[in-house]
Amino acid sequence: MARTTPPRPVDIASVFPELAPLARQTVRLHPRPGEPTAHESSVGGPLLWPADEEWPVCAKEHHHYGVLPVSLDDVRRSRALLEAAWLRPRAPHENLLDPGQEAYLDELQTGHPPHPAPNALLPVAQLYLRDIPGLAGPGGTDLLQVLWCPLDHDEGLPAAHLVWRDSRSVDSVDKLLADPPEPADVDHYGSYVPEPCVLHPEVVTEYPAPHELPEELAERLYEWGRRQWAEQDPDDESGPGGAYYQYEHSVAPGWKVGGWGPWSFCDPWPMHCEVCEAAYRPLLTVSSGEWDGGSGSWIPLEDQEGPSAPVGLRKPEDPPMVGIGRGYNMQIYICPTSFDHPHLENMQ
Question: What is the top-level taxon of the source organism (predicted)?
Answer without folding.
Answer: Bacteria
